Amino acid sequence: KEPRPCQSSQGSLGDTEATTAPESGEERDGDSQRWHRLFPPLGSPAARRRYKDEFAAGLRRYRELCAQLDAPGQRLAQLEQQLEQLPEDSAQYQALAEEYNRLKDLKRSPEYQDKKRESQTLRDKLFHIKRMVSDYDKL
Predict the structure, then answer these.
(1) How far is it, in rounded angstroms, from Cα 121 to Cα 126?
(2) pLDDT band at 32; cut points 50, 70, 90
(3) What is the DSSP string of 98-109?
(4) Is 121 exposed, middle or buried (0-12, 13-18, 19+ CB in 10 A)?
(5) What confidence tens digit (pLDDT) does each residue in 70-97 have?
(6) What are the Cα distances from residue 55, in Å, to 50, 112, 115, 123, 130?
(7) Among 67, 20, 21, 38, which residue's Cα sits nearest to residue 125?
(8) What local confidence, expressed as pLDDT, does residue 27 receive?
(9) Cα 131 to Cα 21: distance, rounded to the nearest angstrom
(10) Does residue 113 carry a pLDDT above 90?
(11) Domain residue spans of the chain
C-alpha cells in the first residue's frame, strides 16, 4: 500500500505560512542516491522479503507520525469554524482563540518540525523501497 502524504505536509486551507522550504534539485538527487545506496536493486527472493519487512516497519512509523502531525491541523480547522461563529468579545471566543494560538505555536515548534521532516524522509524511503520491489517483481 502506498504511503499517503500527511495532511500537515501539504498545508491546510487558511494556513498562510509556508510549511517547509521546497527542496532543491540537489537535495532530492542526494536523497535519491542515498536510498539507492541503502536499498539497491533486488537480486533475490530473500532480499525482497527483507525490503518488504523494512517497508512494513517504516509504514507503521510513518502512520504514527502522520497521526501526530495531522491531529493539530484538524483541530485548527475545527477551531477556525467555531471562531467564525462567535463574537470576538465573548469568553468562549477567547478560550478557543487561546487553544488556536497554542496549536499554531505547536506546529512551529522544533519537535513538530522534526517529526515533519522525519515523515517526509520516511515517505521518500518507502517510495524507493516500493519501487525496488516493484522493479524486481517485473523481472
Answers:
(1) 9
(2) confident
(3) HHHHHHHHHHHS
(4) middle
(5) 999 999 999 999 999 999 999 999 999 9
(6) 9, 23, 19, 10, 8
(7) 38
(8) 54
(9) 26
(10) yes
(11) 42-138
Please name the residues in contact with 116: beta carbons below 8 A apart, sequence gap of 6 or more: 6, 8, 9, 19, 20, 69
Region of 11 (left: φ > 0; alpha: ψ -120 to 50; beta: rest) is left
Instruction: Give the cell for residue 76.
Output: 485548527
The residue behind cell 542526494 is 30
CA dihedral 114, 115, 118, 123 (to 10 degrees): -150
Give the DSSP per-residue string, 37-96.
Answer: HHSPPP-SHHHHHHHHHHHHHHHHHHHHHHHHHHHHHHHHHHHHHHHHHS-TTSHHHHHH
The rounded distance, in Å, linking the Cα atoms of 100 and 97 is 5
Q: What is the pLDDT of residue 19?
A: 29
DSSP letter at 111? H
Report yes or no on whether pTM surpasses 0.70.
yes
Provide, rounded to the nearest whole percent, the portion of the chain with pLDDT above 70. Answer: 80
